[in-house]
Amino acid sequence: MIQIGAPSATLDAPVDHLVACHRRIEQRLDTLAKAADALISERQAALDAIRKSLLFLDSNGAMHTADEEESLFPLLRPKLAAQDLSYLDGLEQQHDEAEAAYADLRRILTRISSQPDPGPELVAEYRAAAEHLREIYRAHIASEDEVLTGIARRTLSEADLEQLSDEMRRRRVL
Q1: Where are the alpha helices (DSSP H) in 67-114?
Q2: Which of 163, 169, 168 has its CA nearest to residue 76?
C-alpha cells in the first residue's frame, strides 16, 4: 500500500527498501493463507491468486533473500561482534526453514492443481502449510524489522550503503 507523504523506499535507501519488501512479502503470504477458504467454492480464482503470490515470492522474494544473504550479511559480518554474528547465522537458518516450508506448500499445491476436486482434507493440508509458512515469516520479518535494520543502520557506512544499493540494483537488472 502506498501512503501519501511517506518516504519512498527505493534502492537509494537499501535498508528501507528491504523493510518495504517485507510488507509486500507479508501481503503475498496473507493471500496464500486466505486463498484456502476459496479453494473449493471459487477454485479458479483461488488458484490464480495463489499462483500470482507464488510468482512474486519466486522472483521478488528470492531477490530479497539474495539481497540479505549475498549482499547485506557479507557487508555486516566483518564489523560485528560474536552475538550479532550469531544473530545473522540464525536469520540464515530461518531462511532455510522458510524455504523448506515453501517447498512443502508448493508440493501440496501441485497435488491440488492435479485434481478436479481437492477435497476438504487436502485443502486443510494446504491451509496448515500456508499458515505455517506465514508464521515462520511473521516472526522472521518482525525480528529483521526490529533488530537487523538497527544493526545495519548503526554499522554500515555511506560507502557500504552505496555498495549494497549497487548490488541490489544489479540483481534486478540481470
Answers
A1: 73-76, 82-113
A2: 163
- Summarize pLDDT for 58-115 with one digit per residue, the tens: 999 999 999 999 999 999 999 999 999 999 999 999 999 999 999 999 999 999 999 8
Cell of 140: 522472521
Alpha-carbon span 14 to 40, nearest angstrom: 41
Going along the chain from its start, the domains and CATH numbers come out as 14-173 (1.20.120.520)
Rounded CA separation 83/93 (Å): 15
Give the pLDDT confidence score for residue 9 in this predicted structure.
Answer: 65
Whole-angstrom Cα distance, residue 95 to residue 89? 10
Q: Which helix (DSSP H) or strand (DSSP E) does residue 171 occupy?
A: helix 158-173
Query: pTM for the whole thing?
Result: 0.90
For the record, the C-alpha cell of 122 comes out as 487436502
Supply the DSSP string of 110-138, one letter for each residue.
Answer: HHHHTSS--HHHHHHHHHHHHHHHHHHHH
Among 77, 81, 84, 65, smallest CA distance to 160 is for 77
CA distances from 90 to 78, 85, 86, 94 (A): 17, 9, 6, 6
